[in-house]
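[audit] Reproducing an earlier prediction to check determinism. Same input, same settings, fresh worker. If the tokens differ from the archived copy the diff job will pick it up downstream; this log only records the rerun itself.
[audit] input (234 residues):
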Amino acid sequence: MKRQETWALSQQDVELLLDNAHAAERVSVRKGNLLYGQGEISPYFYLVLRGEVRISCFEETGEETTIEVMGQHGLCGEAPAFDGLPRFTTAVALRDVDALRFDTRKLQPIFATCPEFAMSLLRITSIKQRVLAIRLEYAFSAPPEKRILQLIRRVAATFGVSVQDGRSLGVHLTHEQIGRMTGTSRVTVTRVLNRLRDRGVLTIKDGTLLLLAGLSDEASERWPDTRAAASDTR
């Protein structure tokens, strides 16, 4: 199974979380099982050490919208773990997962001695809010092509590798996954990707999307060009 994650932390934030692993419990979740469910109230949040976790929300109709896919060193569940309100997303293991489970009720003494840890969690929450705000703006105002291209550029900035022709995505996004994350159908995703390929914006190489160099201002949007910049709000 190819990597599908769409989110990663900066190296500094990962190190701060791992430095405070003594405050967490290591847990394992088998593929198909939940780390947490939408609507539950829980003080726990998770740092993924191995495997992949899909973060999604469900409408009353049962329709699912994918928010992110967290791979190694992805962090999930921290906002509702602190505010004590019902979770608005579900986290399911796409592969067998090993994770560190932090309990917010036990973190205050650590914050007192290591304020950098608290600042790290604030940074992570801030960038997630920013991403969700931009996605919400796109959902109401942008056509499917812009929504899809914005997602591809963000993933390329986070996981991509620079190659001769442009920037390889670095992970495998299925048409279904792109559709769930952009509020479009699988058929629409296929049509949009074909149009972008015909226009020379992207191509497919060795089964992975390749975002070509020399994009127009319209295509470049507002996302950073490096993984560190994409995952750090400083």
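[audit] rerun output stored. Observation attached for the diff report: Confidence is low (pLDDT under 50) at residues 215-234.
[audit] end
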